[in-house]
Design a protein that fits this description.
single chain; 280 residues; alpha+beta; 20% strand; 2 domains; 6-stranded antiparallel β-sheet; elongated
Length: 280
């Protein structure tokens, strides 16, 4: 496993200035790293443990970037919740919980520790293997597509208000589940988008044949609804169980494709929600 060299662990643990932390679990992981939990773990050279990990990201006394992987998921979850509430929390993992000390950062970090040199990769003589680096999101591709889906889930109300339900009429007046594909800058749907049909078909297949862990995730939403997130080869889907869905495709750079609720989408979303991974 990358980064388990004792010298690397000692270097990272000696004086790690913690900048941030993230969860790497089946129900919650940085989606920029992969379409599912095993893929996200593999990007860091980690085995996909059922309970997951916490990633503690910081700098050592020389300013070098380190990502310390721990198996105390609860500790990291409490720290993140505290920070989100504007509270201070001293995240100091017990060395017995350290699984690996990985050189570099797998995600973009906009802050740096005060009083130490600017962030840089560790000395190759100390690091065991190449340093981690964030996925390239400068051009449209899988990483940027997944980040776009993250943003829609986070800003659901803003995206939803741009869509007029009248954009999804069928000839008989009933909305159709596969209607619509609209560019971000416009609100003019295109009927029967082949990419959307493919995504819905693949999502349905997940109900019959469960995909890799974390491909379908369910999280809280307002009221009795749930926010669903599903990913697959070249696509991401974001939906609310009581509403419509949005699809993003690697083959459609920068486009967000709304999927009308129709007669079949509610059943599909309900089935996906039942088999989805949920936060504990």
């Amino acid at each position: 496993m990358a980064g388990t060299d004792e010298d690397a662990v000692a270097a990272a643990d000696d004086a790690l200035y913690v900048l941030t932390a993230v969860l790497l679990t089946p129900a919650k992981f940085p989606s920029v790293l992969g379409d599912d939990y095993p893929e996200a773990c593999a990007s860091l050279g980690l085995a996909p443990l059922a309970d997951g990990y916490g990633l503690v990201i910081g700098q050592d006394g020389d300013g070098a970037r380190w990502t310390v992987v721990i198996d105390d998921v609860s500790l990291v979850a409490v720290a993140i919740a505290s920070w989100d509430c504007g509270m201070e929390y001293d995240l100091s993992p017990d060395e017995r919980t350290v699984v690996a000390a990985l050189p570099g950062w797998p995600l973009e970090v906009a802050v740096a520790a005060p009083g130490v040199p600017a962030p840089h990769d560790p000395d190759p003589d100390v690091a065991d293997g190449p340093s981690l680096a964030p996925p390239d999101t400068s051009t449209w591709g899988a990483a940027q597509r997944r980040l776009g889906a993250d943003e829609i889930a986070l800003q659901w109300a803003m995206w939803r208000e741009q869509i007029d339900d009248a954009a999804f009429p069928a000839p008989n007046g009933t909305p159709k589940e596969d209607d619509g594909a609209t560019e971000e800058s416009e609100s003019t749907p295109r009927k029967g988008h082949s990419g959307v049909r493919r995504v819905l078909a693949e999502a349905r297949s997940y109900v019959e044949t469960p995909p890799p862990l974390g491909r379908v995730r369910s999280s809280f939403a307002s009221g009795d609804a749930r926010t669903l997130r599903a990913d697959g080869p070249g696509w991401s889907l974001v939906a609310r169980t009581d509403d419509i869905a949005f699809v993003l495709l690697d083959d459609e750079p920068g486009e967000v494709l709304p999927v009308g609720r129709g007669p079949e989408l509610p059943g599909l979303l309900e089935a996906l929600d039942k088999m989805a991974v949920r936060p504990s």
